[in-house]
């Protein structure tokens, strides 16, 4: 296979774990199908809810020499362009529902919150978080949907367009000159000082409950995917890294569903922000320092989420660190269609696909992963073109609709 992805693996780590055996009870206590069902019961009542499509990328499968490539395309999720709406929005709902119950003694119904029946309570609440773009957008959207205020911290390399998209949802934007992890600390400090509710998608000592709600919201994505797969069982799943919350949510659902037959799970990260790879290599959560400069803005994270790490460590067999150029090539190939309708993907959204295609061209890695003509590869296209200018600069095309 002649391909521009040749030689693009910057770093790789083989961890031996394969999620063998049944889903551990210690992990199932926090993430399981019952929590997913609870999240789905709430999220399915929100305006605009519909499962996102699972696409078969037959041309890419043929080029990569595998049996099939299935791509869960999140660009249309609630009009926000990414899967993050499931997590941030759900966590905002849970926090507001808790506040309302504390003040009224009643558990609020979704329809009543949407209708503004508790506006006298919610308008006094401010939620805050740090973001690379999509999580902050989902929190701001949830705040707008349910009638509270939002203050979103963005770090130094978040593009102006991404910050403006968040502001359009009514959020106040605060820019921190550091990296994502610096913005997390700034949001936490501001939340504590002002009595705001922190809605973080990463966890740390003393802060676990809200990130778990975020991850439980993400579980709805996997619930949809399993239904769409039917009798097709993936052999390989390539997942974007970041802090690990998204990966952990998908891992938990796969492991619980498939048990001993759980697919091989591979984590893909930017070369400058491969904190999960480093953590696996060190055998403990580890920090990657620096600004984590990468076009994969949603993955520009230097510290693993503590609540997510046990899921990642327990199930992931391989970790790949790739350069930005691999993602640029993947975005262009998706946009070209390669014999089927074009797919519009953002930089973080295409990272899993890029990692797979890079691995498929590297003979030793391909052999280690067991990729062959019978493989069924599952990918999650986590975002559409959430930064239209970036997408247009990468593809050289004009984008009319970012889905």
TrEMBL record:
The keyword Lyase applies. InterPro entries: DiNH2opropionate_NH3_lyase, TrpB-like_PALP, TrpB-like_PALP_sf. Its cofactor is pyridoxal 5'-phosphate. It comes from the Bacteria. Keywords: Lyase, Pyridoxal phosphate. Residues 47-361 form the Tryptophan synthase beta chain-like PALP domain. GO terms for molecular function: diaminopropionate ammonia-lyase activity; pyridoxal phosphate binding. It holds the Pfam family PALP. This is Diaminopropionate ammonia-lyase. It comes from Komagataeibacter medellinensis (strain NBRC 3288 / BCRC 11682 / LMG 1693 / Kondo 51) (Gluconacetobacter medellinensis).
């Amino acid at each position: 296979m002649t391909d521009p992805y040749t030689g693009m693996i910057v770093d790789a780590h083989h961890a031996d774990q394969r999620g063998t055996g049944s889903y551990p009870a210690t992990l199932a206590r926090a993430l399981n199908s019952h929590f997913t069902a609870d999240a789905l019961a709430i999220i399915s009542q929100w305006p605009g809810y519909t499962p996102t499509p699972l696409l078969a990328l037959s041309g890419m499968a043929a080029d990569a020499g595998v049996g099939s490539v299935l791509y869960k395309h999140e660009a249309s999720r609630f009009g926000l362009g990414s899967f993050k709406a499931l997590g941030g929005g759900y966590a905002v709902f849970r926090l507001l529902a808790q506040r309302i119950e504390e003040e009224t003694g009643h558990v609020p119904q979704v329809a009543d919150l949407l209708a503004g029946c508790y506006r006298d309570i919610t308008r006094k609440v401010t939620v805050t978080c740090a973001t690379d773009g999509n999580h902050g957008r989902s929190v701001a959207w949830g705040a707008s949907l349910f009638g509270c205020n939002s203050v979103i911290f963005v770090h130094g390399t978040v593009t102006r367009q991404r910050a403006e998209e968040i502001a359009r949802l009514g959020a106040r934007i605060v820019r921190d000159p550091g990296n994502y992890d610096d913005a997390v600390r700034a949001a936490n400090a501001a939340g504590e000082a002002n009595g705001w509710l922190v809605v973080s998608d990463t966890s740390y000592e003393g802060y676990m409950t809200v990130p778990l709600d975020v991850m439980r919201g993400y579980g709805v994505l996997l619930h949809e995917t399993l239904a769409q797969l039917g009798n097709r069982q993936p052999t390989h799943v390539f997942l974007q890294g970041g802090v690990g919350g998204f990966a952990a949510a998908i891992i938990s659902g796969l492991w619980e569903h498939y048990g001993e037959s759980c697919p091989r799970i591979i984590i893909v990260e930017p070369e400058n922000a491969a904190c999960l790879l480093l953590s696996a290599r060190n055998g403990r959560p580890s920090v990657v320092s620096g600004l984590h400069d990468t076009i994969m803005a949603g993955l520009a994270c230097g510290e693993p989420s503590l609540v997510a790490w046990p899921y990642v460590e327990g199930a992931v067999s391989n970790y790949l660190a790739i350069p930005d150029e691999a993602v640029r090539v993947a975005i262009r190939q998706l946009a070209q269609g390669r014999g089927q309708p074009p797919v519009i993907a953002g930089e973080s959204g295409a990272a899993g696909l890029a990692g797979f295609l890079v691995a498929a061209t590297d003979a030793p890695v391909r052999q280690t992963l067991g990729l062959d003509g019978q493989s069924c590869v599952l990918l999650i296209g986590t975002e559409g073109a959430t930064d239209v200018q970036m997408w247009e600069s990468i593809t050289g095309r004009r984008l009319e609709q970012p889905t």
